[in-house]
Fold this sequence. Notes:
disordered N terminus, mainly alpha, 2 strands
Amino acid sequence: LEWQKAELLVGEYEVANKNKIIAPSGTSLNAVNELHSLRQKCDQLLGEKSSFYRKIAYDDISSQVTAIAGAGNKADFAAPMLNMLENCRNVELAIRLFRLARAHSNYWTDKDRAKLAKICIDQLYSEFAGFSTYGLKRNVNFQAIYALAHCGSDAQVLKLNYIRDNKIYRPYCLYAFGLRQLEAEWVLEQFEKDVAVKNLGKIGVSAHALGLAVRRGTGKRVENVNMDKVVNALCKTIEHNYDVSDNYSGIIVSCIIALGYACDQRYTDNTVSEKSVVKARELLLRLNMLYSSSVATQFTKSIGIAEKLMNGMILSAEEQQFLLKKIEID
């Protein structure tokens, strides 16, 4: 979601957005009124030509989105939000509604979540049929994929196979399949391809998806992927990218977390071999020697968590929260 801070714009026209009153997180809001206000602001944005006033409009919309995202009565937003999404013709509004629906969906009924999934499928139907969309309409599709990953059935999420090889949609499909632990072998293949060409930007996306695909947060056994192959690919990536700069340290953090998930010993039926677990443990012990001190210090938290997973230890609430934040996307 859009967690942008309000700014004070100084110039010929001074706009004190910092003085806006935003309801604190957890406050109950009037769902219909809030969504109506958001729609009006998005309608005004589409008609605004001035870059200066567009910036003001974006900030105003961002504040509204933040307030709705933090509402304490998320379930009350389901019906009006779904109704608005079904009839939405404003792409700026649709982008934000899909993002909000995804954020709220855990508080909705199964019936409402199923309706959201259907709206996502309808939004993506033209792409599934081979008809491309462009511009902001594509951004709407991105958010629809994210929302589908959270509320769709396995069969619905697997429809993303129609577009997963489209380079535009590939990163979004990676996240969706990773989150739902579907097509794990394909996720691993994409990770290996990205590593082969050393595309750091893509490695970050596929490493994150791979970590999601092999995690066992609920004890669910991961099927249809060779876990030893996963460990080998991750170890190779961590070991061979020792020259990565501080700016890309997050990629290695994603790989370390994925490695911890792949070697998770908290459950008895993990399919990874002891040989792979030993290999992973030994690599983590050598990271301080492989990487520069400025980069290695950024791995401390993730290494500690990965080692606890490999040793079958219970994570603290803070460590669990750290992993949950790594699952989230904007």
